[in-house]
Amino acid sequence: MRSLLHPNVPIVSSSHPPQLRRKSTTSSHKVPVLFPNSDNGLRHFHRPRERVRCWPKEQRGETLGGRFEESVTDAVERFMSLFPLTSSYTSTTSWVAGPMPPCSPTSDRDKILCGLDDIERQIDAGEFVWRMDREDVHMNIEAALTDMIGEPAKKLHTARSRNDQVVTDLRLWCRDTIDKILVRIRKLQVSLVKVGIKNEGLIIPGYTHLQRAQPILLQHHLLAYVEQLERDITRLSNCKERMNFCPLGACALAGTGLPIDRFMTSEALGFTAPMRNSIDAVSDRDFVLELLSANSIIAMHLSRLGEEWVLWASEEFGFLTPSDSVSTGSSIMPQKKNPDPMELVRGKSGRVIGSLVTVLVLCKGLPLAYNRDLQEDKEPLFDSVKTILGVLEVLAEFAQNITFNRAKIQKALPAGHLDATTLADYLVNKGVPFRTAHDIVGRSVALCVSKACQLSELSLDELRSASPVFEADVYEYLGFENAIDKFSSYGSTGSARVAEQMHFWVSKLQIT
Description:
mainly alpha, Ribonucleotide Reductase Protein R1, domain 1, two-stranded parallel sheet, 6 strands, argininosuccinate lyase activity
């Protein structure tokens, strides 16, 4: 028998060997399902973006009867249903491995496996009808199996609850999703490093408070984002490590008295171990919050990059020009060429951050253990992941389609006295205390402002009017190119140091 998450993982009794029998498959299956699974050798089912086929009201029956004497109203049914959400997402699901009762006859087990195979075929062919009154995927499949093979199917839910099934599914999906995000981040890192390689030696103004501050190498600037993305990778990897514990077998909240082997199912699904506390297992959504938090930080990083490129593409800056393939126009102004993808990168960051806030607020008032509120973690999670994957993809594409305008950047560099700090360093090297040097250079800049000239254009006598320490070698520190060469500390924007950083990332990212 298979679980509600992996149709190719048999459900075994304690009399069977600890390993699980698996069916091999190389095909991709399309299924309308709720939650995706991981890529650990078990079969995946991909649900197409299509409307869910549901039975009309007169054909609806009871799935969770016994306790209830009447059906829920149409409004309640629509309000609680997950199908409108899940029909919008392409995802995967599986039937998680779980044990049959020890006395289960082999014939029942075979009937269940064959029945699940047939249901899989129906779903793959788009023939399976999803019934709204059966609430979710799990109950739809169990009820359909019961219609198909009768009493043996009623053993399918042995030692399991939708509470632990859903959260197991969700952990598997998040685990798989993190791998996809990591791939996209790496691609963006590679794109940024390649832009740096293409523009080796290009000096641009560096900014603080959006005011010109010091000259920097473009490569150095781009690598700052590569470093941020590397921390994003670390955060996601740590998140994946912490979430990789199996809730399956916790049942509703208290576990079960049936002889199940949680360690076996945990290993079969690629988890590190079963979760120690069954109450925590079904109620925990920390892993969702961590993923949403990591996505929010990624979105913030990418929004900053998008904002800079929007500014740099403007006429006021003119530092870069995006190609036509990543630009849009105006419906009324024929001359316009807008970097709209970067504006959307900036805009969508709020959406991702909002998803984190939504789930934080969702969880903050929930008593232990499971509460139906937790159904509402899916939509913000799915949307956050979809958005982050899209933003990472378009940024990598945009980076490959921009040109930096060297002539305009070169023309803009002299403004702002970017070599002032380097001039202060010159005085410090001559033995002048830094605060005194700061004052001397400040007065020299004031002189330049009054004369409408650059520091390098001041005569030696004019410089000495601010301090007698200045000598003829001072001009080796003035001008943005000389200033770049004077930076030497580890991690700085000096040419030699940036070359070291570029070499590191080219090697790490295996760029050829």
